[in-house]
Design brief:
heterodimer, A: alpha/beta, B: mainly alpha, flat
Chain lengths: 271, 265
């Protein structure tokens, strides 16, 4: 590990609207080191998506800041790629698979030869070398999410954000995609922040797991996953250590559901 | 392949059956008509050749009409999509413009003809402006709706991947709104055909609408009927061209909808 890549400092998010304000995130502070794979789990309604949008620069935090490679995030940073949960809504349905993967590369003004190279590498890496000309809606859900992942890695990001990317695919596909993400991460060494509501998935994928409380959200726990780097669906998931970590996190999540943080020392909005 | 051909043939036959039946009815019922205003269809069809082909009216009357329609329709598309994207993208602008749009839309374009004649004379400019003034509304309002409905996840995706400026406008906003835009264009085109004819009825020296009125005023009833038939045929051809364009431009949308209806995922 060579230093901090992502630094989330005291991020708080309050949604204002219709005369009342909802505090989605109370205080999130954590760092992600370069090359690390960190999973974020929390009970539903834990503001996971809000957190991810704040980090991605899609949403401005009410207070606190997100620092990526020493620079405060104030809009989507160029070195970041995002894979959304709703694959069906995040791929452009009027573009072929090739068009979808290539569009961001064109925006980066990469020369054609380099674009083609990246396109082929990325699609081969996700096992979709033969569907360049297909439209996303002609593919199964799992394949669509593979296209979204290919688009993300072709972008050559320094950090990859994934927002519950496998919540909407079936269990078989999900296991395959988890292994794909693991192998891509190991192969490319790209720093990855993976948000999920699935404890098993978090333990299986991550080097570290952050546990979030229910809204207003805090980081309740930061668990190091000391499983071997080589993981597979069968032996890793049936190992004693996996069960232990899983049990620990399960208890934490149960606690997270009912945990209500004490009121902040300063009145809301008074910083 | 033969099955495909057979199906195509059956579809064509099904589509042509009713028009053929109606024409046959018309033919039979007017066969020995001695009404001055309702000549036999056989007479009408027989005079098509003389009235439109030999006289050169296709070039002197039909072509100018079509060019004016094309100019008006093209301008209406550019204006409608341009302004529609601007209004659809901004909630403020929408609140600001909506009452005025509703007011303008409610004015029947034909009543604008005398007014436009004052400003633009009785030449091509006036006729094109009349066509634009009617065509533009369905295109504009549909574009506004289409732009408003652009998916939030797609907008976020585009932001994350640095899709900005002209690329965002074309690859995201306009493509996403294209089903609604094309619907607006289809409605606009049929309004445009009507206005093409109406604008030529007021003050004109050529055109399809002008010819029909001219025939009517000189009691050339058979010729008048040929003009009406020609106008109908023209509308049909333009609608078909529109449908071909739609199928090409919205190929992805038709496929997507079919997949969603199939519900196999």
């Amino acid at each position: 590990m060579t230093g901090t890549l992502l630094d989330v400092r005291g991020v708080r998010k309050v949604y204002e609207g219709h005369g009342r304000s909802v505090e989605a995130i109370r205080d999130l502070t954590f760092t992600v080191a370069k090359g690390e794979m960190v999973c974020v789990v929390g009970p539903s309604g834990a503001g996971k998506t809000t957190l991810l949008k704040c980090i991605a620069g899609l949403l401005a935090p009410t207070s606190g800041e997100v620092v990526l490679e020493g620079e405060a995030v104030a809009g989507p940073p160029p070195g970041m790629a995002v894979v959304f949960q709703e694959y069906g809504r995040s791929l452009f349905p009027w573009m072929t698979v090739r068009g979808n993967v290539e569009l961001p590369l064109k925006q980066k003004k990469l020369p054609r030869a380099r674009r083609v190279e990246l396109l082929h590498q990325a699609l081969d890496a996700v096992g979709l070398g033969d569907v360049h000309g297909a439209y996303p809606w002609q593919l199964s859900g799992g394949m669509q999410q593979r296209v979204a992942i290919a688009r993300a890695i072709a972008y050559e990001p320094r950090i990859l954000l994934m927002d519950e990317p496998f919540a909407a695919v079936d269990a078989q596909t999900r296991a395959d995609l988890e292994d794909l993400v693991r192998s891509l991460w190991q192969g490319l060494g790209v720093t990855t922040l993976f948000v999920t509501h699935d404890i098993d998935e978090a333990v299986y994928l991550g080097q570290r797991v952050l546990v979030l409380s229910a809204a207003p959200t805090l980081v309740l726990d930061d668990v190091t996953v000391d499983l071997p780097a080589e993981r597979d669906q069968l032996s890793t998931r049936s190992s004693a250590r996996f069960a232990e970590l899983r049990g620990h996190l399960f208890a934490q999540i149960q606690r997270a559901k009912t945990y209500h943080p004490p009121d902040p020392p300063h009145p809301p909005g008074g910083n | 392949m033969t099955a495909l051909l057979r199906r195509a043939a059956r579809n064509t036959l099904a589509a042509a059956a009713l028009p053929i039946a109606l024409l046959a009815l018309w033919w039979v019922f007017t066969a020995d008509s001695d009404s001055y205003y309702l000549p036999p269809l056989s007479d009408i069809l027989a005079s098509v050749d003389d009235v439109w082909l030999h006289s050169g009216r296709l070039r002197t009357d039909v072509l100018p009409s079509l060019l004016r329609l094309l100019a008006g329709f093209t301008l209406a598309v550019l204006l409608g999509v341009g302004v529609g994207v601007a209004i659809g993208s901004s909630r403020r602008l929408r609140a600001f413009c909506e009452p005025v749009l509703e007011f303008l839309r409610a004015i029947p374009p034909p009543v604008l003809v005398p007014v436009l004649m004052l400003f633009a004379g009785i030449g091509n400019t006036m006729k094109v402006l009349v066509i634009v003034s009617g065509c533009v509304w369905p295109i504009l309002l549909n574009t506004v709706e289409g732009v408003r409905a652009v998916d939030q996840v797609l907008l976020d995706t585009a932001r994350c991947y640095g899709v900005r400026g002209p690329a965002r406008l074309w690859h995201l906003i306009i493509r996403s709104a294209s089903p609604q835009i094309v619907t607006g264009m289809r409605q606009g085109l049929s309004i445009g055909i009507i206005l093409m004819v109406i604008s030529e009825m007021f003050a004109a020296s050529n055109g399809l609408g002008f010819s029909i009125i001219q025939f009517q005023r000189t009691f050339a009833v058979t010729e008048m009927w040929t003009g009406i038939l020609l106008l109908g045929l023209l509308g049909f051809l333009l609608a078909t061209a529109m449908r071909v364009f739609e199928r090409r431009a919205l190929n992805w949308y038709l496929g997507l909808r079919q997949t969603q209806r199939g519900g196999d995922r």
